[in-house]
Write a structure and sequence with these properties.
ATP binding; alpha/beta; nucleotide-binding; binds magnesium ion; 6-stranded mixed beta sheet; binds adenosine-5'-diphosphate; 10 strands; single chain; 4-stranded antiparallel beta sheet; 243 residues; Amino acid ABC transporter ATP-binding protein
């Protein structure tokens, strides 16, 4: 469903993404791991043009974009097919939980406000936050805020949800509820690309784990293979430090 070919992104002449090739099946759950500064966030951000890639092709469904020559309408179409969950939630502070989830439906999808709010209510119910519809982010726990962030991504009905370290900003007590919601989405076979340091989540939930270093995919495979029998010395070295 998703096909990335030879994606390159340079900052100040440095190739932070150095020729990424990646295919993702519909319903596949992929976890990306690797040392910090290795290009994981840049990969996710390039997939929906939060950063503009310098070279390469991104295909999602029937939409194919040549990164170097992407037109504005193609970029907008690509963004509609991808949803992003940020490490720091990135909620609108002056909007309620309900409004945060409904906002994209109103502004991007041009749904009438009443229908968008009704859909946002359904989502709040499915993520266990129906009673927080009218709460502002500041009055929610970190875990609740991130669940709203995930609810917003669910509302977009994107082909893939991109998670960039969704639990890294959370106090330890809130991590599990966010991972539980992500597991719920995985059970529903929502296609997901997840950058995380939560190795047990990768082990339990991922169909495939990708190890990145230096802007490249070094090794990938099912979690059983990558964690128990890594082939590349760089993967082994990384896993020794984090496991
Ligand atoms: P990771 O998410 O794996 O920690 P990043 O994708 O955030 O890594 O960053 C990869 C490299 O790109 C780092 O060296 C970082 O400093 C650099 N980088 C990221 N964003 C920018 C930017 N906007 N301008 C310049 N350099 C950047
Ligand atoms: Mg990062």
């Amino acid at each position: 469903m998703i096909n990335v070919r030879h994606l390159i992104k340079r900052f100040d002449g440095n190739a932070v993404l150095d020729g990424i090739d990646l295919s993702i099946e519909q319903g596949e759950i992929i976890v990306v791991i690797g040392p910090s500064g290795t290009g994981k966030s840049t990969l996710l951000r390039c997939l929906n043009f939060l950063e503009k890639p310098d070279e390469g092709h991104i295909t999602i469904g029937d939409l194919s974009v040549d990164a170097a020559h992407a037109r504005r309408d193609e970029i907008l179409a690509l963004r509609r097919r991808t949803a992003f969950v940020f490490q720091n939630y990135a909620l609108f502070a002056n909007k309620t939980a309900l409004e945060n989830i409904a906002e994209g439906l109103i502004v991007v999808n041009r749904w009438p406000k009443k229908i968008a709010h009704s859909r946002a209510h359904e989502i709040l119910t499915s993520i266990g936050l129906a009673d927080k519809a009218d709460a502002y982010p500041a009055s929610l726990s970190g875990g609740q805020q991130q669940r709203v962030g995930i609810g917003r991504a669910m509302a977009a009905q994107a082909d893939v949800i991109l998670f960039d370290e969704p639990t890294s900003s959370l106090d330890p007590e809130w991590v599990e509820e966010v991972l539980a919601l992500m597991k719920q989405l995985a059970t529903e076979r929502q296609t997901m690309l997840v950058v995380t340091h939560e190795m047990s989540f990768a082990q339990d939930v991922a169909d495939r784990v990708i190890f990145m270093e230096g802007g490249r995919i070094v090794e990938q495979g099912p979690p059983s293979q990558l964690f128990q029998a890594p082939e590349d010395p760089r993967t082994r070295d990384f896993l020794r430090k984090v496991l």
